[in-house]
Design goal:
The chain has 140 residues and is mostly beta strands. The chain is 14% helix and 42% strand.
Length: 140
């Protein structure tokens, strides 16, 4: 079972403001991308099908705390930790590091939902094939 995931990416020019510093909103994009890669590591996606239904992971909450700036072309290590695995949702904590130094922290939560076109979105139990592979992170 997996409770943590590491993702690395470079700060691109489009991620920055005129001063060459990563824009605060891009931290949320980086967290979301790490979440997508985490789900892909289990052979699924943030948008998939289950029992003939379109499944998605709408956001419930998102927050970030900024410690120091990231700049154009910095390589950032993003660590995702499963903070809570509910019956219908996953909550994550994120740690952003550059050259081994903390630059930001974040949190996000997503609900597993049926998102069929023309129907109301409704939360469902996380499919067992996925839920069985994920566990909450426990610090040593």
């Amino acid at each position: 079972m997996v409770s943590e995931f590491h993702y690395r990416r470079r700060v691109e020019f489009a991620d920055t403001d005129l001063a060459g510093i990563m824009h605060f909103a891009r931290f949320f994009v980086f967290m979301e991308t790490a979440e997508h890669e985490f789900l892909r590591s289990f052979g699924t996606s943030v948008s998939t099908t289950f029992e003939d239904n379109k499944i998605g992971w709408p956001r419930l909450t998102a927050s970030a705390e900024y410690i120091r700036p990231l700049k154009f072309e910095d390589v950032v290590d993003i660590y995702l930790f499963v903070d809570r695995k509910g019956q219908k949702s996953l909550s994550y904590k994120f740690v952003f590091e550059h050259d081994g130094e903390l630059v930001a922290r974040g949190e996000m939560a997503s609900a597993c939902c049926i998102c069929n076109p023309g129907e109301a979105i409704r939360a469902i139990t996380i499919p067992p094939e996925l839920a069985e592979q994920i566990e909450e992170y426990r610090a040593e």
